Every structure is written in structure tokens, then in C-alpha cells.
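Record pair follows.
FIRST:
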Amino acid sequence: HTYTGMVLAHAVIAVPFVVIPVLTALELLDPNLARASAACGAMPATTFWRITLPSIRPAVASGALFAFATSFDDVVIALLLAGAEQHTLPQEMFSGLRDSITPAMLAVATIMIAISNSLIQRISRDFSTLSASWPAVAENSTNGAMNTAPARLTSALGSSEVSVVAWNATKMTS
């Protein structure tokens, strides 16, 4: 009945929802991007923050959203592991449903619906932007390999020389 136990229980439940999409995104990441960045003289930390993380950001965001939703939905964990002094929002909402529906609970439900709607609109807008860029990516592919490293490095590192070096590094590794 400790706070640490509840955090660990929620982490055990939520970790697969984060690990699976992030590992999938890392597997689909073009390794030529990191090679081209290193060929341009970027440190590994710079490569991670400017190349890798922006590329896998949608997977990280979806994993975080699924982990939050799963953790928020598991009121049973909160009921079983929370101590007498610990009160989580799902636990309070569940106990409120048993006793009576209060205006505070209705306000929380309204806020949750508004946040869910805004997230759905944001995700659909991001996917429509992503799907609009798919034909351009498909046109740049040769032999099944994506040759988008020069464009991504130029936008990430902000130098015209980077695109020339990255293009050469991509061609040498292909």
C-alpha cells in the first residue's frame, strides 16, 4: 500500500505500450541518417536530439498516450494498491459513481472529453499532413531504400554543406 508500489504496478502495465511502438519506429529509421550525421561531424547526442528523436517522436507520443490511457483505465490497480491516504482521480471517480454523481465529477468528465477531442483532432491533422507527404517520399526511394537523409539533415542541422556531405555519405553506404 505504498506510492512506490502503485507507480511500479502502473509502470509494469504501461511499459509494453511504449516499448513496442518506439522499437518499431527505431527499426524503421533509416540508418543512413545517423551515418550521414556522423560524416558531417555531429556528435552522437546531437544526432539523437536532431535526427533520431524527431523521427521517432510520433511513436513516443502514441506510446505515451496509450500508456496514460491504460494506466488511467486501471482503476482496479488503484483500488487494490492505494493506501488510505492515497486518492487517485480514477479511484475518486469510481467511488463517486457508487455514492452519487456530483457536479465535480461531471466537470472532470467534460474536461476529459474536451481533451480527448482535441487530441483526436490533433492526431488526425498530423496524419493528414503525413499522408500528404507520402507520395514525395515514395518518389525519392530507389531499390526500396529511402534517400531522404539529405533533406532531413539539411532541415535539422541547418546548413547547405550538410546536404552535399550527407548526399555523398548516403550514396557511399548504399
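SECOND:
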Amino acid sequence: PEGPWETQERNTIAGWHGWGAAPQLFDKPEYEADRADLAQRLGDDAYRSAARTTLNAHYTDPRIVEAMWETVSGAGVEGGPVLEPGCGSGEVLAAAPEGFLGVGVELDPTTARIAQARLGDAHEVVTGNFAEFEVQPGRYAAVVGNVYICERGSSASCFGRIVSPAMPWMVFRS
């Protein structure tokens, strides 16, 4: 259902970690009936998007999320707008300390809707490709997230100068 969601619904949806946990659903013959059901439920465009994101839609452990926010605080950022590229189901923004206003960018429309419903009015989720997302200089106090692999082959090609391709997760102070 569309949000706003009740606390119990948000707690339930917090278990959704994206399509990365189920790539076999989209290509193994034994899942043909499930695939047809999912395609019918999502619609053609959302189904294709879900299948496309299996490579880079993965769960971020809460310990890593906590370490990211500790790093943000350690960098002297105590609040303000933050950007999360590839926000998935909103795990990182859901854990944001008080005072942070997040903007998450998520490629898959189904996952973006889940993230927005989970996060409510606390943060904004934009559906789109981060490689095409216009980042306004000086708008964000920090960039935080779990770096994903993009269609171009490396995170660096999607994030330009703000990311080292060797980083498994990132925190940047703007």
C-alpha cells in the first residue's frame, strides 16, 4: 500500500533489502511461475527495472550503517541535508541521527516507493539513475551510502570525482 504507513508496517517493510537477494527469480527455469506472477503484479516497466537491479541491490548491515553515521559525526557534520546515492530500501537514511534531512536516489521504482513509505516525511526519495542525478554544489552537508556497481562498470564512473572505486562504502563531507 502507499504511505504513510503505521509503525508495524514500517517495521515489516524494513526487512525488504532489494532485488539483489533474488537474482535467480529472474532467470532460473524453476521460477517461471513466480516470475510471471511478479511481472503481472509489477507491470512490464517495473519488472524490467527489478531484474536490471539484481546486480547492485544489496543489504547494508546495520553495523556498517552505524559506522557510516559515526564517521559523518567524526567529520564534524552534526546535521543538515545529506545525499544517499543508491538508497535502496532506505536502511542508511532510516538510521540517520536527529537533525539530518536525507535525499535518497534509487534506480528501481518499486524499491524507491518502499523506501519512501518506510521513511515517511523524514527524508525524500527520488526515483532515478544517480549517474544522471544533478548534484548541486554546496547543497549537501555530506554524502553517505553503500556504493553500488553501476551499468558503466564501476562506481567511479557513476559518481565522478566524489568516490574512489576501491571504497566498499562511503562518507563524504561536502
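COMMENT: The longest strand covers residues 100-106.
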